[in-house]
Design goal:
Elements lengths: L3 H13 L3 H19 L6 H17 L10 H20 L18 H6 L5 H13 L3 H12 L4 H8 L3 H18 L6 H9 L2
Helix pairs in contact: 1-2, 2-3, 2-4, 3-4, 4-8, 7-9, 8-9
Length: about 200
Amino acid sequence: MHSPTNEYCQLWSRFKTGDSVAFGQLVTQHYKLLYNYATKFSKDRDFVEDCLQEVFLDLWHNRTNLSETVVVKAYLLTAVRNRLLKSLRRANLFQSIDELTFTPDIIERPVEELLIAGEQQDEQVRQLQQSILQLTPRQQEIIYLRFYQQLNHDEIAQLLNLSRPSVANLLSIALKELRKKIQWSTISMLFMLSSALQ
């Protein structure tokens, strides 16, 4: 039985040889994830969809020049982030845009479901969501990429154009801020997950 990572690697290899079916599968399997990530930076759905279309068109046209060995999810998230920034710079004639601002409406549930169990789950989920939304945009993005997308420190560093120690430091600060805001003990599981997933 193949792991999802191996399946993505095989799809990537087939896509690089010009297999349009494999390319379609890559798009289908990652579109929702990429769309959700992009909408953390822009609420303009048409703009987001246009950016994603450009990412996939570029991917197809440049496939022969792409590396054989990539972490597909991290690579696509990076491509989307870069495209959003490039498109925003191109569209904004009056202000220099050097960085994207991560602004979620609400954080999804997967990490809470890993972290919290018991009778008070709904209240704890609400507390965690509200506490994450009080972090800085960069801290929210680090938490999102680390715990919701399960990217490792190296992948996040590549995606955000930071050094690995900077990612580790930002994540540590974000987790400490969450710990200050949330008074229930299960927040310590974030620290355990952070160590386990590095």
